[in-house]
């Protein structure tokens, strides 16, 4: 499995549509650089901003290595239905990344539980605008590499990442839904540019079935991926398997899929996590991070 991870990393690097810039001056918007950070380094801070007339909550983790003169990537990590920003932080382990990691909090929806735009049970709020406002706030406050802003999410949060891929590929460089709930309430998807995506899903997911759920309008994963292959003008795909894991990537674009046989509605991790006490054969977080690193905005 380690050999396969190394091979996957190499393949992900080839998916980048442009070379990775090395000069910080070329990659970063510096509006927040040089300013004292309003958050503690090496820690997570809960805070709010105003968006659409509402007070919106989010959690920010600044790495201990944060330097106000050196731009860092930003990873937005969206929790699932009924979950919290704190749960998402613990679930993904993304706060260990050398990045500014932000865990937004969804609003209470029609079923009395937290949710994101695009689901039939979500609140009547503009979460896409909240995401835009959040990015703008981070760029003002922190030394952010504006070409390296990314979005990942689980379940309903993964579905919302799909919404962002449709509507914000001009601001967010790459997207990683895990067990994504791609409801039809998300609306039409007409992205202004190609959206690099890596997707994870287990075949034993009974919450968001791999084969879809017509009663809820949920697509089968192969159909959802085919839609993105068409939008991103891909040229066919290749795949290979290692045990229960099948890796698939499309040619001529930046679209990848990881299918895990027998995996339920969980964030893949080789250690027990909030979703499951049973380890998985792969870790989604480092694979996502490698994909993100090879995909700056261009």
TrEMBL record:
One of its GO terms (biological process) is xylan catabolic process. It is found in: Secreted. One of its GO terms (molecular function) is feruloyl esterase activity. Keywords: Carbohydrate metabolism, Hydrolase, Polysaccharide degradation, Secreted, Signal, Xylan degradation. It holds the Pfam family Esterase. It comes from the Bacteria. Residues 1-23 form the signal peptide. One of its GO terms (cellular component) is extracellular region. This is Polyhydroxybutyrate depolymerase. It comes from Amycolatopsis xylanica.
């Amino acid at each position: 499995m380690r050999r396969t991870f190394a091979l996957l990393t190499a393949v992900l690097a080839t998916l980048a549509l442009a070379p990775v810039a090395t000069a910080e001056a070329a990659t970063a918007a510096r509006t927040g650089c040089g300013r004292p950070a309003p958050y503690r380094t090496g820690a997570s801070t809960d805070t709010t901003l105003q968006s659409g007339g509402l007070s919106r909550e989010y959690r920010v983790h600044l790495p201990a290595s944060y330097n106000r003169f050196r731009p860092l990537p930003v990873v937005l990590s969206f929790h699932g239905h009924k979950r919290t920003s704190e749960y998402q932080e613990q679930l993904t382990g993304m706060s260990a990344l050398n990045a500014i990691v932000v865990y937004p909090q969804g609003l209470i929806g029609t079923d009395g539980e937290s949710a994101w735009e695009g689901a039939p049970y979500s609140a009547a709020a503009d979460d896409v605008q909240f995401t835009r406002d959040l990015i703008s706030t981070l760029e003002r406050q922190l030394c952010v590499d504006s070409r390296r802003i990314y979005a990942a999410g689980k379940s309903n949060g993964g579905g919302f990442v799909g919404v962002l891929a449709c509507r914000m590929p001009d601001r967010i460089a790459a997207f990683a839904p895990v067990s994504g709930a791609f409801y039809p309430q998300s609306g039409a998807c007409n992205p202004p540019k190609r959206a690099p995506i890596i997707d994870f899903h287990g075949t034993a997911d009974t919450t968001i079935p791999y084969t879809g759920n017509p009663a809820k309008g949920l697509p089968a994963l192969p159909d959802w991926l085919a839609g993105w292959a068409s939008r991103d003008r891909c040229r066919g795909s290749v795949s290979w398997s290692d045990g229960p894991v099948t890796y698939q990537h499309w040619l001529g674009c930046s679209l990848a899929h990881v299918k895990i046989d027998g995996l339920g509605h969980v964030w893949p991790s080789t250690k027990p996590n909030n979703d499951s006490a049973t380890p998985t054969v792969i870790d989604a977080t480092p694979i996502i991070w490698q994909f993100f690193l090879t995909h700056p905005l261009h």
